[in-house]
């Protein structure tokens, strides 16, 4: 257990800087789409950019999921909470797959 002043270690903690860099890049892409709409760009071009953002977010989500399994689920399994964490993870996967 962590103390109130100590930040807990997450599965993505080691790659946090890289993760934030990717998310900032995605944020820039979203702003780019806003500009495209403001400029009345061709619909298909806007949709293509939206698709690229969705793919980038999917890649981030899969990386987080991999980190979660490698850290959080394994730690929980060693503590006897593996089934609970696996169910939580599968619910998150289900939510990721239901978009659209």
UniProtKB/TrEMBL annotation:
Entry keywords, A to Z: Copper
Pfam families the record matches: Trns_repr_metal (PF02583)
Identification of the protein by name: Metal-sensitive transcriptional regulator
Does Ligase appear among the keywords?
Answer: no
Keyword set includes Metal-binding: no
Extract the PANTHER family matched here.
COPPER-SENSING TRANSCRIPTIONAL REPRESSOR RICR (PTHR33677:SF3), TRANSCRIPTIONAL REPRESSOR FRMR-RELATED (PTHR33677)
InterPro entries given for it? Metal_Tscrpt_repr, Metal_Tscrpt_repr_sf
Give the UniProt family note.
Answer: Belongs to the CsoR family.
């Amino acid at each position: 257990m962590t103390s109130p002043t100590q930040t807990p270690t997450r599965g993505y903690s080691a790659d946090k800087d890289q993760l934030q860099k990717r998310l900032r890049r995605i944020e820039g892409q979203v702003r780019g789409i806003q500009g495209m709409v403001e400029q009345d760009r061709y619909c298909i071009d806007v949709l293509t950019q939206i698709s690229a953002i969705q793919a980038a977010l999917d890649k981030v989500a899969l990386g987080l999921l991999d980190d979660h399994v490698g850290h959080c689920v394994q730690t929980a399994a060693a503590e006897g909470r593996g089934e609970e964490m696996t169910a939580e993870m599968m619910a998150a996967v289900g939510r990721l797959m239901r978009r659209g």
